[in-house]
């Protein structure tokens, strides 16, 4: 168990936690695990909080503020924690509004307004507004998980701000509470309303009087120094205090980064949703040429004008996204221009835009896209930019810190050229992308924070970059806020008079400096509190798995997570990652929360007991090892692999959970059970079944699958091959699940393969991929099994014989896990060759038998893609094969089925397992019309369907085999 690290100024975290708990502040967490999870956001910075409070009600917020004020402890308000500037971490108490304080309070379609709590996710607001053909205009790329409170804190803008403005431009009213507990409702005010508020006295009256005096005494500075162009976000937005802006206190508070007050609710403006959209992709010789073209395109009433550099797209490895990139016009940089309006007008407007682009220098090609499916695939590249850019094409790490500067659009080309030269001068590099239409440039740079020299280079660079952006009339921040990343640099952008106004504004609102201290005024140093620093030596942790992509460094692997939080996307249909978070909505159950905890474990400060950490073990408990994050996470965090590595060390030479011995050793235990299946089945369905489950660590609610009367191998080795085998040999991988429980699947596979002209063989003996040992972290056993399997299959693989797998999890293990397990081993080359030779049934039939005509199946189906297949090979070949068969298939955007191998069978996991399945898959199965085929290749998926619905799942091999003509008797 980790010890509790001391907090700020000698304040005891345990005492703060106890005081908060006694004050009834909602959920209060002061354990080392929670504090570690909230120590970082998506920035370069790290501050370990004293405690974390998750309020459910306004009264919880008031109680937390009162307690912190009494103790002299600062407060940091937090939404999704996706800030790239460090303003979502703090040394005091963190208030997490995202989990419970997240309701839509009102939506008025006539007034086109909505009132929300600060923790609501933007996409949830957009979904509600879409029912009235409305939307919220500001839409950052993190829209699937960012909260309105966070957007208000940063004055977030997003892709469509060129048309619909920043968050500030869409705020009608805010209700806030100060550190001292004063609740104020803010909006625009007339002179009469100002006079009335001042005359009424009280805390509110005194506050408004002070703010009014500040504005009235500094009109010239507010008019000339602030609000010069849309993306001037740095500092406080005091221009909204001007009389011509109707003394709009709510908008003045937007972008204050939680330093002035805590938002309780917000009333926002909604705008009409365009009836149709078209995407125009313009290719350019380089990013500078694309930037030069921007002014010529802005007159075309664009909804968006985004730019991205080839250096960003070169990082992409996900097959689906890579395929979309390969269809872009040949170029080294692209502009994505979006038009909106009536569908009939868009082609003409798009052609006019292309015509204008042809007059610009450096255009290499263009494409007009009206297909919304293809457009979404391309927009995904841009949306994943913040994650993709954290790894450069050579695999080196890249960081924020200067990722958000903005200049007037007419200055963008000049700024980008000089910025590129500045990178070269400091021997740095980065991938450029951003909101080119508003002059806002995003870039992640390969700073080296692991050395004193690299950290000094970082500081010198950001100072030079700040001077450069100011010389172009720009802003240090264009939408991410200043935070710790840029607040210290504000005097380079503003004179002493404006800085003094900022300090006065802060003092009026928060004279105790209790809210997010160190941001904007009285700033923390730009190179302080760094998450990666040469002053902190990681624990010497040796790993079993190689982690080649991270130079064999487990600490570096865990810091792949830069905090962009895509794993916190809770809406169905957004990929597989992260099924446990979608159920619990708890940071500890997200990929990010686990990665941050593992990283803190490697540092040895908050989590002090390394591989033996209970906090890490508990956080990993609800990880389904689905591998969804390995492909859905923009930076390729592979939590299933991290979990296996951790469990291996955590339980080394210790007693493991019972399920590790039963389900972890299932392939071996199934062999004696297969000799007496009826006896075993009678036992597991008898009155002794509850005892069997309890002893085996199995959830009491689960049915234990029944062993088949005859294994597939027994059947296969007693049969005579059929067909002429003119296409040659294939080696059918006999997985333990189908062999012992559902041999009909493997039999169907044989029938299909023989009908397609293949001669089917199976491996000698009884082989196993070792998956169950891998997922339970028994890597020593898994390695021995993998070595044996690889040796057994090596002769066939060397002879060029394909290995076809029917169970997706085992196929994925052969393709990805075995090469990692055996890396550096004498059989490593054979394992890599086996991985290359391994294919799914659909891949074999589509790519190795393209002229084979599958049987016609004129029917409808819905299909559940197994998580491991999603992570390795995808559903493309399956979709092609189903199309050839005439099947009208709907591929469910369901994510993980929830059973996930041993996970859903383990005691304590049943509720989460079922809840994950109930999000999309199980309701879709129940709603499917009679006669609709339920396609599910995974044994886990079919088991979940069978145990939770009245339907049964069908393997693709079974669907094909049932439609084959009968084999004629000789």
What key phrases describe this protein's structure?
six-stranded antiparallel sheet, 970 residues, 45 helices, alpha/beta, globular
Fold and architecture overview:
The protein is globular. The chain starts with 12 loop residues before the first helix and ends in a 7-residue tail after the last helix. 42% of the residues lie in helices and 12% in strands. With 970 residues, the chain is an alpha/beta fold. It is built from 45 helices and 24 strands.
Radius of gyration from the alpha-carbon trace, in angstroms: 30 Å
Count of beta strands: 24
User: Which parts are unreliable, with pLDDT below 50 for 5 consecutive residues or more?
Assistant: 1-7
Summed up, the helix count is: 45
Helix content: 40-55%
The mean pLDDT is 95
Percent strand equals: 5-15%
Instruction: Going across the biggest sheet, name each strand in turn.
Output: 15-12-14-13-16-17
The shape is: globular
What is the end-to-end distance? 70 Å
Largest sheet: 6 strands, antiparallel
Structural class: alpha/beta
């Amino acid at each position: 168990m980790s010890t509790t690290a001391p907090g700020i100024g000698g304040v005891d975290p345990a005492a703060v936690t106890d005081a908060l708990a006694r004050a009834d502040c909602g959920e209060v967490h002061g354990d080392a695990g929670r504090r570690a999870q909230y120590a970082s956001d998506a920035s370069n910075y790290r501050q370990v909080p004293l405690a974390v409070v998750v309020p459910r009600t306004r009264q919880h917020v008031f109680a937390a503020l009162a307690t912190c004020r009494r103790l002299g402890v600062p407060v940091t308000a937090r939404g999704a924690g996706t800030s790239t500037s460090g303003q979502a971490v703090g040394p005091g108490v963190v208030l997490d509004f995202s989990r419970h304080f997240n309701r839509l309070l009102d939506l008025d379609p006539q007034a086109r307004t909505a009132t929300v709590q600060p923790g609501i996710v933007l996409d949830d607001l957009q979904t509600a507004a879409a029912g009235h053909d409305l939307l919220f205009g500001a839409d950052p790329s993190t829209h699937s998980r960012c909260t309105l409170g966070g957007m208000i804190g940063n004055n977030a803008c997003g892709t469509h701000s060129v048309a619909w403005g920043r968050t500030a431009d869409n705020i009608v009213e805010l209700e806030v509470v100060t550190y001292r507990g004063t609740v104020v409702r803010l909006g625009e005010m007339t002179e009469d309303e100002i006079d009335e508020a001042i005359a009424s006295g009280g805390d509110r009256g005194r506050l408004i009087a002070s703010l009014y005096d500040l504005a009235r005494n500094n009109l010239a500075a507010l008019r000339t120094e602030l609000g010069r162009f849309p993306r001037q976000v740095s500092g406080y937005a005091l221009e909204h205090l001007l009389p011509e802006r109707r003394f709009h206190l709510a908008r003045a508070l937007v972008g204050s980064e939680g330093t002035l007050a805590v938002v309780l609710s917000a009333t926002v403006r909604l705008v009409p949703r365009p009836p149709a959209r078209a995407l125009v992709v313009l290719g350019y010789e380089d990013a500078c040429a694309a930037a030069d073209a921007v002014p010529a395109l802005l007159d075309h009433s664009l909804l968006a004008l985004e730019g991205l550099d080839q250096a960003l797209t070169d990082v992409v490895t996900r097959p689906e996204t890579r395929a979309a990139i390969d269809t872009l016009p040949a170029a080294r940089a692209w502009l994505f221009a979006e038009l909106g309006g009536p569908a009939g007008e868009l082609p003409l407007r798009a052609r006019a835009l292309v015509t204008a682009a042809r007059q610009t220098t450096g255009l290499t090609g263009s494409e007009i896209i009206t297909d919304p499916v293809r457009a979404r695939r391309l927009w995904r590249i841009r949306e994943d930019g913040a994650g993709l850019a954290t790894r450069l094409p050579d695999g080196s790490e890249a960081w924020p810190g200067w990722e958000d500067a903005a200049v007037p659009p007419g200055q963008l080309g000049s700024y980008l050229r000089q910025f590129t030269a500045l990178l070269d001068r400091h021997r740095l590099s980065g991938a450029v992308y951003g909101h080119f239409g508003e002059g806002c440039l995003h870039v992640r740079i390969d700073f080296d924070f692991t050395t004193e020299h690299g950290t000094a280079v970082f500081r010198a660079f950001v100072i030079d970059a700040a001077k450069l952006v100011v010389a172009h009339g720009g802003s240090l921040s264009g939408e991410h806020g200043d935070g710790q990343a840029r607040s210290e640099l504000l005097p380079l952008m503003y004179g002493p008079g404006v800085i003094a106004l900022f300090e006065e504004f802060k003092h009026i609102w928060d004279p105790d400096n209790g809210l997010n201290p160190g941001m904007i005024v009285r700033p923390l140093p730009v190179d302080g509190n760094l998450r990666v620093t040469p002053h902190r030596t990681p624990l010497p942790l040796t790993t079993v798995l190689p982690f080649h992509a991270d130079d064999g460094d487990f600490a570096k692997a865990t810091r792949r997570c830069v905090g962009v939080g895509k794993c916190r996307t809770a809406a169905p249909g957004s990929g597989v990652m992260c099924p446990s978070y979608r159920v619990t909505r708890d940071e500890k159950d997200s990929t990010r929360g686990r990665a941050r905890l593992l990283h803190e474990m490697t540092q040895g400060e908050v989590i002090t007991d390394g591989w033996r950490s209970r906090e890490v073990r508990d956080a990993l408990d609800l990880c389904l090892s689905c591998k969804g994050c390995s492909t859905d996470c923009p930076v390729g965090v592979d939590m299933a692999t991290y979990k296996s590595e951790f469990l291996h060390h955590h339980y080394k030479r210790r007693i493991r959970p019972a399920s590790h011995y039963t389900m972890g050793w299932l392939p071996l235990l199934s062999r004696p059970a297969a000799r007496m299946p009826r006896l075993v089945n009678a036992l597991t369905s008898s009155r002794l079944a509850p005892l069997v489950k309890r002893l085996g660590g199995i959830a009491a609610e689960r049915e234990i699958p029944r062993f088949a009367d005859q294994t597939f191998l027994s059947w296969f080795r007693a049969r005579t091959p059929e067909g002429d085998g003119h296409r040659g040999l294939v080696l059918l991988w006999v997985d333990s699940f189908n062999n012992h429980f559902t041999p009909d699947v493997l039999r169907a596979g044989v029938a299909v393969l023989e009908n397609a002209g293949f001669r089917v063989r199976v491996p000698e003996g009884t082989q196993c991929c070792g998956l169950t040992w891998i997922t339970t972290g028994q890597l020593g056993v898994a390695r021995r099994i993998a070595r044996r399997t690889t040796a057994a299959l090596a002769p066939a693989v060397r002879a060029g014989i394909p290995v076809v797998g029917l169970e997706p999890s085992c196929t994925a293990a052969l393709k990805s896990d075995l090469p990692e397990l055996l890396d550096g081993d004498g059989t490593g080359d054979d394992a890599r060759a086996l991985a290359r030779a391994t294919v799914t049934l659909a891949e074999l039939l589509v790519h190795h038998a393209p002229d084979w005509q599958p049987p016609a199946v004129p029917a409808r189906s819905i299909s559940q893609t197994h998580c491991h297949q999603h992570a390795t090979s995808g559903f493309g070949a399956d979709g092609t094969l189903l199309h050839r068969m005439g099947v009208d298939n709907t591929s469910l955007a369901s994510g993980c089925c929830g059973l996930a191998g041993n996970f859903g069978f383990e005691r304590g996991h049943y509720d989460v397992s079922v809840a994950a399945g109930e999000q999309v898959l199980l309701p879709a199965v129940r709603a499917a019309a009679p006669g609709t085929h339920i396609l599910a290749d995974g044994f886990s998926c079919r088991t979940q369907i069978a145990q939770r619905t009245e339907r049964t799942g069908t393997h693709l091999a079974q669907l094909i085999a049932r439609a084959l003509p009968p084999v004629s008797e000789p």
